[in-house]
Write a structure and sequence with these properties.
single chain, about 350 residues, alpha+beta, Aminopeptidase, 2 domains, 13-stranded mixed beta sheet, globular, disordered C terminus
C-alpha cells in the first residue's frame, strides 16, 4: 500500500482569501496583530511596497501565512517582512496550531515552507536583498542559516501580567513607585481617548521628531487607517491630562492574550511631571484587570531608551532577524542603502521617546 506524503505549497493570497488568512493568524501561537490581513493592506496602501501575502497549504488545508513586501529602488530589488518606517517590530512566517505539532512535523513544515519561499523569491521576485524579522517565540532559524542568511538576535521587554498589579508595582524601582504616586498627587489624570485624542498625540510625536530635526516616519493618514480598522477592539489610546490640557499619551495594541506598547511616550513639556511613568503604569494596570497575560514593551534594541523601560522590571525577550544578500556586490552600498531606509538595526520597533 502506497502512503501519500503531502508537501506544503505556496500561493499568493487574494482578497477572497482574507478569512482563511486571518484564521491562520488567529490559530497561530506566534502570530501578532501585525499579521492580520487588514493591517497588511493598510501598510501596502501607504508605503508603496507591494504586498506578497504567501499562503502555505497542503491541497485545500491552509497551514501557514508568510507576508512579505517588495520594492524596487533604482537597481536594487528589496524584500522586507516587515517593511521599514511602518512601526511594525516584526512579521515573518506563522503556522496554524504550531505548538500542538510534534517536533518532526514542526521542522518539516517550516523547512518546506522556507524552501518554497526561496523558490518563489528566485523565480518571481529575484531580490538583491531580503530582511525578515521573525515574531517572538519562533526560535527555528536553521532554514535561514542553511540557505545563506545572516541571523541575529533582537530584543523586547515583557511583563508577566498574571503576577497581578500589586506584585508588579512592588517590583518596580523604588524611585519609579515614588514618581508615579507623586505625579498622581500633583493632579495628572490618565484617561482613555478616541480619534481626536489620537490626532493630538500624533502632533505631539511629530513635535518630538522636529525637536530632533527629524520627520516622524509614519504618516497621519496611516495612523488614522490603523485606528479605523482596529479601534476599539484591538486598541487603547491613553492620554495624560493636567489642568485640562493633554500633555502626552500612548497607544497600546492588544491581540489574543498580549498587549503591545505601540507609539507614544512623548517628551515631557512640564518639567516636574513625569507623565510617561504614570501612563505606562496605568496601561499595565488595565492589562491586569482585563485578564491579559503579557505586556510587551516594544524595542529594547536602542540603548538610550532602555533606561526608561527597565524601570518597570521587565524580562528580556528575544526575536530573530534574518538578512540575505544576492551577492557580495550588493553589500558594497550597504551603508548608503541602510541610511536611506533608516538603519535596519534601529528600524522603528516603537516610536517611543523617553
Amino acid at each position: 500500500m502506497r502512503v501519500m506524503i503531502m508537501e506544503i505549497d505556496i500561493r499568493i493570497a487574494e482578497e477572497k482569501d482574507k478569512e482563511a488568512w486571518n484564521k491562520v493568524v488567529e490559530n497561530s501561537p506566534h502570530a501578532t496583530i501585525f499579521h492580520r490581513w487588514e493591517w497588511l493592506k493598510i501598510v501596502e496602501k501607504h508605503t508603496g511596497y507591494k504586498l506578497y501575502p504567501l499562503l502555505g497549504h497542503e491541497e485545500n488545508n491552509v497551514l501557514a501565512a508568510f507576508p512579505v513586501f517588495y520594492k524596487k529602488m533604482v537597481f536594487l530589488r528589496s524584500v522586507f517582512s516587515p517593511p521599514p518606517k511602518t512601526a511594525m517590530p516584526y512579521l515573518g512566517p506563522v503556522f496554524s496550531e504550531y505548538n500542538e505539532l510534534k517536533q518532526g512535523k514542526k521542522e518539516s513544515r517550516f523547512f518546506e515552507l522556507h524552501e518554497k519561499f526561496e523558490s518563489f523569491m528566485k523565480s518571481k521576485v529575484r531580490p538583491h536583498y531580503i530582511n525578515i524579522l521573525l515574531p517572538p517565540g519562533i526560535l527555528e532559524t536553521r532554514p535561514f542559516l542553511w540557505s545563506g542568511y545572516q541571523v541575529e538576535p533582537n530584543y523586547n521587554y515583557t511583563i508577566d501580567l498574571l503576577k497581578g498589579e500589586e506584585e508588579i508595582f512592588k517590583s518596580f524601582k523604588k524611585n519609579l513607585r515614588q514618581t508615579i504616586n507623586a505625579t498622581e498627587r500633583k493632579g495628572v489624570v490618565i484617561e482613555k481617548g478616541g480619534k481626536d485624542e489620537l490626532l493630538v498625540l500624533y502632533d505631539l510625536l511629530s513635535d518630538n521628531y522636529k525637536d530632533q530635526k527629524k520627520k516622524l516616519p509614519i504618516s497621519r493618514e496611516y495612523v488614522l487607517d490603523i485606528y479605523d480598522a482596529f479601534f476599539p477592539e484591538y486598541m487603547n489610546i491613553f492620554i495624560a491630562k493636567y489642568e485640562g490640557a493633554i500633555l502626552g499619551g500612548m497607544v497600546d495594541l492588544h491581540y489574543k492574550e498580549k498587549i503591545y506598547s505601540w507609539i507614544g511616550n512623548t517628551k515631557n513639556r512640564v518639567n516636574d511631571l513625569d507623565i510617561n511613568d504614570l501612563i505606562q503604569w496605568k496601561a499595565i494596570q488595565l492589562g491586569c484587570r482585563e485578564g491579559f497575560k503579557t505586556y510587551e514593551i516594544i524595542g529594547a534594541n536602542t540603548q538610550r531608551l532602555s533606561f526608561f523601560k527597565t524601570k518597570f522590571n521587565p524580562e528580556l525577550s528575544v526575536y530573530f532577524s534574518a538578512t540575505k544578500y544576492s551577492s557580495e556586490l550588493v553589500k558594497i552600498p550597504k551603508n548608503a542603502y541602510t541610511r536611506f531606509y533608516k538603519p535596519l538595526e534601529a528600524k522603528i520597533p516603537s516610536l517611543k521617546i523617553s
